Amino acid sequence: MTRSILRLALALLSFISLVQKTVAEERPNIIVIICDDLGYGDLASYGHPYIQTPNFDKMAKDGILFTDFYSTAPVCSPSRVGLMTGRSPNRAGVFDWIPEGRAVRPDAREQVHMRDSEITIPKLLKEAGYATAMAGKWHCNSLFNSPEQPQPGDAGFDHWLATQNNASPSHANPTNFVRNGEPVGPMEGYSCQLVADEGIEWISNHHRTDPDQPFFFYMAFHEPHEPIASPEELTGTYRKVAVSEKEATYFANVENVDRAVGKLLTSLKDLSIDKNTLVIFTSDNGPETLNRYPNASYSWGRPDPLRGMKLWTTEAGFRVAGIMRWPAKIESKQTVQHAVSALDFLPTFCELAEAEIPEDLELDGASFLPALENRPIKRNKPLIWAYYNAINEHRVAMRSDQWKVLAKMNLPKLQNVHTGNINEVRAAQLSDIQIYNIEDDIGEVSNLSDEHQQLKEELTNILTKAYNDLVAGSHVWEPVQMP
């Protein structure tokens, strides 16, 4: 009797272990890699004539290169908040890049942060049994590493190594990283390599201690955002083809990121976990305009063949590189033209992780799983961007099927929405509607609005409805009343 019970218990434990292992094998590890200010044309696989990116190229050959991949905003902070939440960053109250909250401002920008009430990817995956970690640029709050605002750990990350904004004093030997609330101090090496090393070490340790638990890792490089610094061994290889020393340094900066990603991919293979790990590479927005501000003299990113740059609502502002690799599920050597957005990460990852999304959570993205089989994504709403501080005049944009729509608005430029200007925002009217068939006209050259009045009317109605919904759902900040 005792032996029978023991055999039954061992069989039950074996069965439970097998079930857990099967679930772990079915649910992939997920790694999101994001660059800062990378141009759409800055990788060899996207057409750059000089920059060597063999690891990105191989990643694309092993999986999918997306031609129509979009970030959630044309500038850093809102783009990152949108990625984390699956919602337009306007809904979270993040309308522009977040400065450090050093002093009270009349537009309440010192308060801006991703609030603790926001539902994020790591929060939901953690509830579903995933281990979570990040390394790199955070830029989702104004008071970094302060109890006054939520930090990466509050957003759902078990482990984090981060900076508030850029690596300082540059990518070389940064001094401003914080690990799990503790300042690290001076670090030796280049930011992208340090970030990749942190990821490799955490993944390796996690796999060694709990190989059956899937993980989510967010790797947010600072490169190639200013202030740029690159290894001499790489910079020297570009001097003959670059027009200046600074352009050569920029080229080397992108290749240095490629090397960091290659190191990560090699580590996944060495751990024998690469096949069931979904790795996604993208950028937070388009390239910075050369010399737009005094310290932007190294910003040689290329938007080609798109129109505009970072801070624009034309394609170059938020149409970015998008590469996915997942050997267990993704067929290799694919080029996919269906529109995919970083807004789609949250619903897709939750589907893969069998994580439950709150029923009352209004998402702006949709599952991108159909696109992995080169099928269009089923969207309940179009992709829309409202960037009130855009450089170009058309500050509202929409992608709906093959159509790109742009609109002006009778509203002064704003960096934040607060109780002092929300009525103006709500009363603003969209005008000067422009329409482009973005599948045939990637450079947004031929405005079709005058030739196709019925189409213009239909798309204007869709845009107006989507924009009004976005404004109604936007978080509004309350400025501090000074005596």
CATH class of the largest domain: Alpha Beta
Low-confidence stretches: 15-24
Task: Please tell me the CATH architecture of the largest domain by its name.
Answer: 3-Layer(aba) Sandwich
Quickly count the domains.
2
Biggest pleated sheet: 11 strands, mixed
Query: For the CA atoms, what is the radius of gyration?
Result: 23 Å
**What is the total tally of β strands?**
15
Describe this protein's structure.
The strands form 2 sheets. Strands 1, 2, 3, 4, 5, 6, 7, 8, 9, 10 and 11 form an 11-stranded mixed sheet that branches. The protein has a 4-stranded antiparallel sheet with strand order 12-13-14-15, with helices on one face. With 483 residues, it is of the alpha/beta class. The protein has helices spanning 2-26, 54-62, 76-85, 121-127, 191-209, 232-235, 245-270, 315-318, 345-353, 422-427, 453-472; strands spanning 29-35, 64-70, 131-137, 159-163, 178-179, 182-183, 215-220, 277-283, 319-325, 334-336, 340-341, 383-386, 396-400, 403-409, 430-437. The chain folds into 2 domains: 29-373, Alkaline Phosphatase, subunit A (3-Layer(aba) Sandwich), CATH 3.40.720; 383-472, Arylsulfatase, C-terminal domain (2-Layer Sandwich). It contains 11 helices and 15 strands. A hairpin with a 2-residue loop joins strand 13 (396-400) and strand 14 (403-409).
